[in-house]
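Title: Comparing notes on inverse folding

I've been comparing how different people in this forum approach sequence design from structure. To keep things fair, I'm posting one structure and asking everyone to reply with a full sequence. Here's the target:
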């Protein structure tokens, strides 16, 4: 079953017309129309929005074309997933709901900023020597949400 057929099946099962479906999912009617006419493929972004809007739809069914359309009863997604899309306040960049690792900084509620730290070659000995070697920061790379980066 292709993406168009899956969207039509969801609309039929949920008893929604094209306007109601596009409003609920958060896509424009023209995007949905272009999908139905075959001009656009169903993108991963549209699939993410569908999964966020219809929490009982199985991601395996929608994305991988395996298993039943709906999750088993009582297994609706209750925890945020990678595909969740959160509403944002105006003039506020979206904040990804990602786990923050040790090499990330979260500054002022913005996206976690991955920070790559490299050290000089002298300190790259084996781990047994770490306590014996003085380590110092050689370079820091800051990646911004707009796709740019800065080296320090």
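Reply #1:
Here's my take.
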């Amino acid at each position: 079953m292709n993406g168009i057929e899956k969207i039509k099946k969801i609309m039929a099962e949920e008893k929604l017309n094209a306007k109601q479906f596009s409003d609920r999912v958060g896509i424009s009617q023209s995007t949905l129309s272009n999908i139905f006419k075959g001009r656009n493929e169903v993108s991963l972004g549209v699939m993410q929005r569908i999964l966020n809007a219809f929490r009982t739809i199985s991601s395996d069914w929608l994305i991988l074309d395996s298993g039943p359309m709906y999750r088993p009863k009582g297994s609706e997604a209750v925890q945020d997933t990678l595909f969740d899309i959160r509403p944002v306040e105006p003039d506020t960049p979206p904040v990804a709901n990602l786990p923050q690792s040790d090499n990330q900084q979260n500054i002022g509620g913005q996206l976690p900023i991955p920070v790559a730290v490299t050290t000089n070659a002298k300190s790259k000995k084996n781990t047994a020597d770490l306590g014996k070697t003085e380590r110092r920061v050689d370079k820091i790379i800051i990646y911004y949400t707009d796709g740019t980066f800065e080296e320090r």
